[in-house]
Amino acid sequence: MKDYKLITAVHGDEYIPTLALVSKGVAQVIGNPRALALRKRYVEQDLNASFGTSGESYEEKRAHELGELLDPRKLVIDFHTFSIESEPFAIVVDLAMLPLASSLGLRKVVYMKHNVKEGHALINLHKGVSVEVGRHGDPISFERTLRIVGRLNKYGIKPARVKIYEVYGQINKRGKYINFEKNNGVIPVLYGEHAYDELGYYGLAAREITGTI
Question: Please, which of 101, 130, 137, 182 could form a disulfide with 78 given CB 3.0 to 4.6 Å?
Fold first, then answer.
């Protein structure tokens, strides 16, 4: 993995990718070690909304540390898990990262044109992708993390055909949504995710687009 830096546990309750990489002795950077030790999403505030900020919270200081630690010449692959039923998918904030995102063996890529982290996610500050590998605590998420890393080790960036979804807004009312299935013109992404409860919305609104790889 010379061309990539693997990041896990940016959210401390998303520990399965960390365990997966540890099980194979794969080098990784633990995003939020204190939250990971507590099995909490964060200590003071969301680390994945703290990059490029200048506050004094634990997560903002940790974001600054990570900024100094990560080599800007290497792409980051930032592993996450979720609390709901959904297919796994990769996330990009820059369409130039589509070749990497489509090389992970996943069928779906989400382009965060509408940026719910207001430009302060890890991949806003460091080129790369985030990967939602599956549900919290699910053995499938463990195995999928290892498959993604194994594929990159074997093939590197080798783009494959994927479906691309552009997030353009939020879902602010409850409905009968199934993630990645169109409902009244809306394709939901991460609908029902518990982390969104305190933010006042229920999921992300997306549409399928045609991308160039």
Answer: 130
Give backbone dihedrals phi and psi of 85, rounded to 5 degrees, phi first. -85, 125
Tokens of 67: 């900024």
Report how many domains make up the chain: 2
Cβ pair 30, 21 in contact under 8 A? no
Domain of residue 180, residue span: 168-209
Claim to verify: residue 17 and residue 110 sit in the same structural domain: yes
- The H or E element spanning position 39 is none
At 91, list the tokens. 């996330």
Q: Are residues 112 and 16 in the same domain?
A: yes
pLDDT of residue 73: 93
Q: What pLDDT, on a 0 to 100 scale, did the predictor assign at position 212?
A: 52
Asked if 29 and 69 count as a contact pair (C-beta separation under 8 A), the reply is: yes
pLDDT at position 162 is 96
pLDDT of 115 strictly over 90: no
* Residues 151 and 115 placed together within one structural domain of the fold: yes
128 plus 25 within the same structural domain: yes
Neighbours of 123 (CB within 10 A): 23
pTM of the model: 0.95
Q: Same structural domain for residues 51 and 99?
A: yes
Which residues, in sequence order, are CB contacts of 5 under 8 Å at separation 6+?
29, 70, 71, 74, 75, 76, 77, 128
Q: Span 85-95, mean pLDDT?
A: 97
148 to each of 29, 101, 119, how far by Cα in Å? 17, 11, 26
Model confidence at 213: pLDDT above 60: no
